[in-house]
Design goal:
alpha/beta
Length: about 300
C-alpha cells in the first residue's frame, strides 16, 4: 500500500458527537478541534447547521465556529441540510459545506423526511444561495453501499446520483457506507467507476466499522485510486436513523495502519492517541478505537522477569 499520501478528514466533533446522549460542552469541542488542527489535519468536519431540536448535541455550531483558532492550511467543514442551514454556515464563515442525501428512498425519508429527489432539488437552492461565496461544496451519497431497509443499492443508481450532484456544480463527492454494509470487492468496483467521473482529488470515502470491515474497505478503496477518507477519533459516531450503525472507522487506527504500511498522512499519531484517550472523559463511556488501548506496534514492552 505504500505510495501517495492518504488524506484523513476528521469527523468526530460532528458525526461522532451528534448521537452522544451527553452534551459535550462548547469549550471542550473548541479545545478538541484546535488540538486536532495542531495534530496536522488538513480537513476537519466541525459541526452541522441542523435544527437544534433534531440534533441537540450540535446546537452550538455557530459558537464552535466562532471560537476555534483557524489554522492556516486546514479546511473547516460543516454539514448543511437545507437553505436555512446554508445561511447560518455562511454567517459562520465555514470553508466548506457538505450536503447529504441517501440514494435509498426509505433511508432518505427516515433521515431527511423527504425523497432523495426532493433533497437534491433543495441542494440546487442551496447552491444558488452560496454561489459567489468563498467556500467550497461537497455532496454525500449516503447508503451508497447498502441500505438497512432496502438492502443493496445498484452501482448505476449511485452513479446517477453522483452525476446529479456534479450537474449542480459541487466541488467534491463523498460515498458513504452509512451502516457498514460494504465489503472490499464491492468498494473496489464502485470506487473505480466513480473515479472515472470525479478523479481522486474530488472523492471522499466514508466508512463505518459496523461489521468490522472498515479498514479493509479503506485498503480496497485506496488500491482502486481513492486518497481521501473520513474517520472519527476513537471510532465515535453512527447514524441516528440507521438501526445498528455503530461508529466510523477510527482515526488513530487508520493512521497507524497507514504509517505501518509506509503511507504518509502528515498526522501526529502520538498526539491523536493522547486525544483519543481523553474521549471517555468527554462522552462518559469507553470508545471502540484499538490503537489508543494497545499502543502503536513500535511501542515495545520490557521482557518479563524470569520465573524464579
Amino acid at each position: 500500500m505504500s505510495g501517495d499520501a492518504l488524506i484523513v478528514q476528521e469527523v468526530a466533533t460532528r458525526d461522532g458527537f451528534q448521537i452522544e446522549p451527553v452534551f459535550v460542552e462548547t469549550a471542550e469541542k473548541i479545545r478538541l478541534i484546535d488540538a486536532l488542527a495542531e495534530a496536522g489535519f488538513s480537513r476537519i468536519e466541525v459541526s452541522s447547521f441542523v435544527s437544534p431540536k433534531a440534533v441537540p448535541a450540535l446546537a452550538d455550531a455557530a459558537e464552535v465556529f466562532a471560537g476555534i483558532r483557524r489554522r492556516p492550511g486546514t479546511v473547516y467543514v460543516a454539514l448543511v441540510p437545507n437553505p436555512k442551514g446554508a445561511e447560518r454556515a455562511l454567517a459562520a464563515q465555514v470553508d466548506e459545506i457538505n450536503l447529504v442525501a441517501s440514494v435509498s428512498e426509505t433511508h432518505n425519508r427516515a433521515n431527511m423526511g423527504m425523497s432523495p429527489a426532493d433533497s437534491i432539488a433543495g441542494f440546487a437552492r442551496i447552491m444558488d444561495s452560496v454561489r459567489g461565496a468563498s467556500l467550497s461544496t461537497n455532496a454525500t451519497v449516503a447508503t451508497a453501499f447498502g441500505c438497512p431497509f432496502e438492502g443493496d443499492q445498484s452501482a448505476d443508481k449511485v452513479l446517477a446520483q453522483v452525476e446529479r450532484y456534479l450537474s449542480l456544480g459541487v466541488d467534491g463527492v463523498t460515498l458513504a457506507d452509512t451502516t457498514g454494509m460494504a465489503n472490499p470487492r464491492q468498494v473496489a468496483r464502485l470506487v473505480a467507476r466513480v473515479l472515472a467521473l470525479v478523479g481522486p482529488g474530488r472523492l471522499t470515502l466514508h466508512f463505518h466499522n459496523t461489521r468490522g470491515l472498515g479498514l479493509a474497505n479503506v485498503l480496497a478503496a485506496y488500491d482502486a485510486g481513492a486518497r481521501r477518507f473520513d474517520a472519527a477519533l476513537g471510532g465515535l459516531g453512527g447514524c441516528p436513523f440507521a438501526p445498528g450503525a455503530t461508529g466510523n472507522i477510527c482515526t488513530e487506527d487508520l493512521v497507524s495502519m497507514a504509517h505501518e504500511m509506509g503511507v504518509p498522512t502528515g498526522l501526529d499519531l502520538p498526539a491523536l492517541i493522547g486525544l483519543s484517550r481523553d474521549l471517555p472523559r468527554l462522552v462518559g463511556h469507553e470508545v471502540p478505537g484499538q490503537v489508543a488501548k494497545a499502543g502503536r506496534p513500535c511501542d515495545l514492552h520490557p521482557a518479563p522477569a524470569k520465573a524464579a
